[in-house]
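Entry 14. Ran structure prediction on the chain below.
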Amino acid sequence: MIRTLSSAQLRIASLIIALSFVFSGVLGLLRSAIIGAIFGAGDALDAFYAAYRLPEMLFTLVAGGALGSAFIPVYSRFSGKGDAVGAVRLASATLTLITAAALLLSGVALVGSDWLVRAVLIPSASAEQQALTASLMRIMLGTVSIFSASGLIMAILNANQRFLAPALAPSMNNVGLIVGAVLLSPSMGVYGLAYGAVIGAVLHLAVQIPALRALNMALRPLPNPRAAGFGEVVLLMIPRVIGAAAVQMNFVVNTALASGMAEGSLAALSFAFSLMFVVLGVVGQSVGTAIFPTLALYGARSDTAGFRATLSAALRGMLFVALPATVGLVVAAPVLVATLFERGAWDSADTIGTAWALRFFALGLVAFALQEVFARAFYALRDTLTPVLVAVGGVILNVGLSLVLIQVVRGAHPAEGPFGGLALANVLATALESAVMWALLQRRVGVFAGREVIGSLGRVAIAAGVMGIGVWGVTGLLEGASPIVVLGIGGVVGVVIFEVAALFLRLPEARSIPLALLRRVQR
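Output, structure tokens:
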């Protein structure tokens, strides 16, 4: 039987996941640095990122977050009642049918790949670019069914409070792409990256198998849509899939709009989003993943007091990390991008363009993190419709803002192109989505973000502001030094200033988070 986690256990779980995200993030940065050095922000990477869009969309629609958010509450109800047989049958049926659906959709996309690229993904690109994109996409469609099976296994492990293996899985995807870039690309060009994506999907699945075996769950093929609970999983998934489709359409619109911009625009936008996403994994996804099973159990028991307390504590911890991370990314974006990528085929113009987009994405880091936490809170209440409706509204707003902002957003440097408007549109729409979900969730479960959270937010903002001034001063004093020196010294100074300011402002997280991390390391 699955039990709820205490606040201390949730902090440890969040730290485990956060450290795994850090590890994955480091590998992701290494992957990006290697790919950037080999290819630069040019046509080849534009084609790769455009080609990956459809496989990623299909996985997101078939499984992705939609499956986990629908599966875990239903599975938790079986486990909470001690019905191990029912839980295993539900898992077996879901794994079988989801994988079959992924194979079917991948086959359809394979047949229509050329048309999809020409008409939907990159209509403004050249015929040669479209042909390359379609060829790469056909290779990477093989990842959809693998990721779908792996996504369901992640949900099973998370539902059983086993967080380490699922949190490590994204790292394996990065390993596959690194292998493709380093070992395959010298002889295969950008096709090496496509095959690396397939290798990454296999490793993503393989790293979770030992943890699944440790649960002693006798999973087996069960193509039975009438298995108890499966219908409820599908019903809970439907609104979430609609929302995921709307979000994916956002990315498709961005890809299509960027295809008509200067060479390397899509690559710069993708690199910037990846950098922001690394930080988001640590400050938002780790918290959301750790609290979701506990929130689902509180939701199943109608324990709103426990639900509110868990959510409030999670928000305080998340904001304590997210706000200084936002300030740090905005201030240090050019130095960070130069340190990571400026070598080989990657030049200073690529750095300027990527930093331009990164600063816009960084402004939305808190909003992206809140969205991760609030969406999972609704899913834990078995309400997948509300966040979907909010997401659909956000997508409509995002598309409208994108069409307007790409006409007006420009920087002083030629590399600071209109793709910055795409990043800013995404941030503004996400901020509104998060605000709406915050208000609706408090109407649903009561006030969980009262004086304690708001007061903590204000003090964290002050500490982050002081840190930002300090880091800005350090980068100014070290102007002309090596980017890695500036980044290293600025990072250390920023952490020290923030921690001292947080202790001075009596933020409890300034003590509890470092102490929890220290205890974990000592173990």
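The chain has a mean pLDDT of 82. Will compare against last week's run tomorrow.
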